[in-house]
Write a structure and sequence with these properties.
Blueprint (H helix, E strand, L loop, with lengths): L1 H39 L12 E2 L4 E2 H19 L9 H25 L12 H34 L14
Antiparallel strand pairs: 1-2
Helix pairs in contact: 1-2, 1-4, 3-4
Length: about 170
Amino acid sequence: MADANALSASARLSRVGLGFVAACLGTLVFHQGGVELCHLAGLTGSTPYNFRPVPPFGVPAVASLTFWGGVWGIVFVVAERAITRGPGGYWVAAALFGAIVPTLVFWFVVVPLKGQPLGYGFQVPRVFVALIVDGLWGLGTAVFLTMLAGRRQTENAASFGRDSAPVARQPGV
C-alpha cells in the first residue's frame, strides 16, 4: 500500500514537472507566436521574444515570461482534473483556462502591484490581445503536455521491454 501511495505521489510530481516544461514550451511557441500574429494584425506594438531586461533581476523579458508561464503550467496541471475530456472539450477548456485565469490574475493582481490601473485601464485592443495570446498559451500547454506525457508513457513501457499499448492475448498463447 505504501508503494502505491509513493508511486502515486511520484506520478503526480512527474506530472507537475511535465506541466512546467510544457507550459514553458507553450509560452515560447504558442504565446509568443500569438504575440507575433497580433503584431502583424496591428493589434499591438509588442513583438515576440523581447530581450529587454526586466526588474528586479534584469533578466530578459522573454525569460521571465517563460518562467512564469511554467509556473502557470503547474497551476494548469492541478486544475486539469476539473477539465472534462470530451471530444474537443479538453482543448477548448485548456484555451479558456489560459485566456481567463492567468489573464485575470495579471489584470487584477500583477498590474496594480506595478502601480498601473487595473487591467491597464481595459483598453481595446489590449484586452483582446491578452485573451488571445494567453488562450493560445493554454492550448499550447495542453498540446505539449499531451505530447510529453505520451512520450513519457512510451519510454516507461519501452524500458520494461513492452509497447506502450497493451497487447491482446490470443487464447492458448
